[in-house]
Specification:
Radius of gyration: 29 Å
Strand content: 15-25%
Shape: globular
CATH class of the largest domain: Alpha Beta
CATH architecture of the largest domain: 3-Layer(aba) Sandwich
CATH superfamily of the largest domain: P-loop containing nucleotide triphosphate hydrolases
Strand order of the largest sheet: 5-6-7-3-8-9
Amino acid sequence: MRTVFCLANHFRRRGQSPGSQMPLLSLENACLAFGDAALLDHAGFVMEPGERIALIGRNGAGKSSLLRVLAGEGGLDDGTVWRAPALRVAYVPQEPDFGRDRDVFDTVCDGLGDAARLLSGYHDATVAVAARPSSQALSRLDELQHELEAAGGWSLDHRVEQVIGRLGLEAQARVDTLSGGGIKRVALARALVGEPDLLLLDEPTNHLDIDAIAWLEGLIRDFRGGVIVVTHDRALLDAVATRVLELDRGRLASFPGSFAEYQRRKAEMLEAEATAEAQFDKFLAQEEVWIRKGVEARRTRNMGRVRRLEDLRRRRAARRERLGQVGLAVGGGGESGRMVAELEGVGKRFGERTVIRDFSTRILRGDRVGIVGPNGAGKTTLLKLILGELEPDAGTVRRGTRQQVAYFDQFRAQLDPEATLTEVISPGSDYVEIGGARKHVIGYLGEFLFAPSRARSPVKSLSGGERNRLLLARLFARPANVLVLDEPTNDLDIETLELLESLLQDYDGTLFLVSHDRAFLDNVVTQVIVAEGEGRWRECVGGYSDWVRQRSVVEAPAPARSPQPTVAVARPAKTRVARLGFRDKRELEEMPGRITQLEAEQEQLQAQLADAALYRERPGEVVALRQRLQAIDEELERLLLRWEELEALARA
């Protein structure tokens, strides 16, 4: 954990960053529109060095467009963007903007700009020489060595290797073989390798599990430069933000402090705004009554009052109304049996891999169950066992009666991109029935912020957030006493998330929720089932934070072939005897010497790899030296974790 939280130290540049005595950047009088919608309406802000800004706003408000402008990848219709001289900016968009047909090393190298070609070529030549030495391969390697020396590229090569190792990636792995979380780490490595002064992150938690999100928190919090992050993960925002910047109706409002402080101040502002607008509308109505008298207006010749009324009308027309709130409701269907599912000693394997090992639980009507675990742990498999869609290899599963199941992920897979919104919600009918009330489908779509003019639009015209709102509308249009929500929070804005939370808290059926959103889990579920590694699952009363608090002394994870960027546990929590045995004492006494020995060898290897003569005279040794350095890094990480564990036992 210590190694992970200190990760950002490896990305810090020596000396002062450009702009250390001045703002990093500023936006002034910025205007940007798409069609009739003004995303930026004379907006502006100033960013100081060291700030970590959370950029929030509704879906479609223009957050991603603003990030592209700040990154220099998009332009404004009017206004200016100023950046500090020599400011180095790294931008990580929602979806990777690089090809996936190359290996990790070459892809990460691109973050170095002009030096990328040389390093990438040198890396490939080194691998070729190690695999099959030949005069042609050696000649090519020698040529690239001279070019790198002339460009001062040896330190850059080491930096790329270091970043790749620290983010738990394999340099020679092809990007297209990685998971979504792996590709996200490649994108982050590509941004960090250039040692930026400003890091722009657009939904960086997408495709990351809870462990990786916690790791990302540490990286952002310890990053010395400035950070602007767009995310709906409220736990991450509370952990890292020093200021919240809200994009609302084209304007940017600044709220110093944490996200929780923003929520408090925003509620006060909305109340004051509603009062002021009500007073404005009342005064305008009074003036409209006066002008309609006509004769009195002409007789008094109060032209100043007439001009003021005209100005009020212009201001009223120009005032952009705050968007409405999503109106969520769900029909609970008929009441299910008291017992929803009972699992006794259940096990499930796929080939040699055990996904679920000897797991038992009993789920009753009204339970709201969160299922938590890293990507690939088997969360979907566990759900299918509970719902009767999959048979166990061992143990028994009993299911209750009178169950009406609505499955969010199934709707996502079945969504026809050519179908219209009304066809998705109510095929063959203009009405839906919600909680016993009959509603017109266009009015129902309006409750999910879809204007009547868009009701006949095809699904393929929707943004990611709009598509998720449509999926929720479809889900809630069907009566159900068992709801299964698989990652429902993706692409939803914070306000919609909070409304969905409120709905689920009042839902009287049974809920199964798979999510990596810790705040959402804490606010919704009554119990969690957590993957603790090697097919073991544990049930815990409360939300995700309750599970974290209930853990005992945690065993250190076994060393992996490639270090994973996690800070949360991936091993079962076991209570240990609170005293040191003879062997533990001896291990603790010998540990400082072992660490010192490894660190000395680590320094020696780093010096060898930094020596240009190695690559000219003994290129065949390069790969072996790097592998040994990687092994030492892994061993040091394991020893540090074990040391912390032994010291905790010694203090107990």
